[in-house]
Amino acid sequence: MNETIVCAVGNVATQPVYRELASGPSARFRLAVTARYWDREKNAWTDGHTNFFTVWANRQLAANVATSLSVGEPVIVQGRLKVRTETREGQQGWTSADIDAVAIGHDLSRGTAAFRRSVRTEQPGAPGMPGTGAAQQPEPNWETPAPDTAAEAAAVAEVAGAEAEREPVAVT
């Protein structure tokens, strides 16, 4: 459970790439995160260093990323940070910072968005899931059912009457 959870605010730097894999849908894109600071000498905001992250999304999040995000859009990404270092031919050490996304959304401080609920596209053969051919279970009835018999109705009325007859307790 020792994971580094990050929240990054930036812009979509590359068009999301969507793939159907054996383990389910996957999408990735690059996120540009630029630090901004107040420059007292210029009396203005100045852009600092830009960090780039590869953002990975899986399952339903991947499908939503592919249909919702475009290059240049401001987004907020929350997920697990993974830093990898590799040695490649002809290069020194190569380091990449990836975010395994849990949630991604448009940054509403910089624009507006219209939310549309998506239809779930789960793995084929999952029991009870839409689009799988499996029988769907109806929504449960959360209301308390009415008594089926006269005996049950009398028992409910008796309990209600007993509670009404109780004397109030004085609190001092």
Automatic annotation (TrEMBL):
GO terms for biological process: DNA replication. Residues 150-162 have a biased composition (Low complexity). The keyword Glycosyltransferase does not apply. Homotetramer. Residues 163-172 have a biased composition (Basic and acidic residues). The keyword Nuclease does not apply. It comes from the Bacteria. InterPro entries: NA-bd_OB-fold, Primosome_PriB/ssb, ssDNA-bd. This is Single-stranded DNA-binding protein.
